[in-house]
Amino acid sequence: MGLCKPEIEIYQRVKTLLAAGEEVLFIDDQEKNLHSAKLLGWRTLLADEEGDWVNEVESLLI
């Protein structure tokens, strides 16, 4: 694609592949990569080294 995180254009390309109004949870282990996703209205979650983020995702799936 010639793009990489955190360039917003890569997130915008992904968004074109989603159904309109689709809810998105973007998870990354680097805070700098979450900003562009937030600009598109996506929910974001920082993946911490301890793995606590997994519990949060599991609670969202219940």
Describe it for me?
With 62 residues, this protein is an alpha+beta fold. The protein has a two-stranded parallel ribbon. The radius of gyration is 12 Å and the shape is globular. It is built from three helices and two strands.
**Shape call:** globular
**Helicity level:** 40-55%
Instruction: Enumerate the spans where pLDDT stays under 50 for 5 or more consecutive residues.
Output: none
Distance between the termini: 35 Å
The SSE order reads HEHEH
Q: Largest beta sheet: what is the strand line-up?
A: 1-2
Strand content range = 5-15%
Pairing-aware structural class of the strands and helices? alpha+beta
The main sheet comes to:
2 strands, parallel
Provide the residue-averaged pLDDT: 94
Q: Please give the count of helices.
A: 3
Strand runs, count: 2
Q: What is the oligomer described by this structure?
A: single chain
Quickly list its features.
3 helices; alpha+beta; 62 residues; two-stranded parallel ribbon
Give the structure's gist in a few sentences.
With 62 residues, the chain is of the alpha+beta class. It has helices spanning 8-16, 34-39, 52-61; strands at 25-28, 43-46.
Architecture blueprint of SSEs:
Layout: H1 8-16, E1 25-28, H2 34-39, E2 43-46, H3 52-61
Parallel strand pairs: 1-2
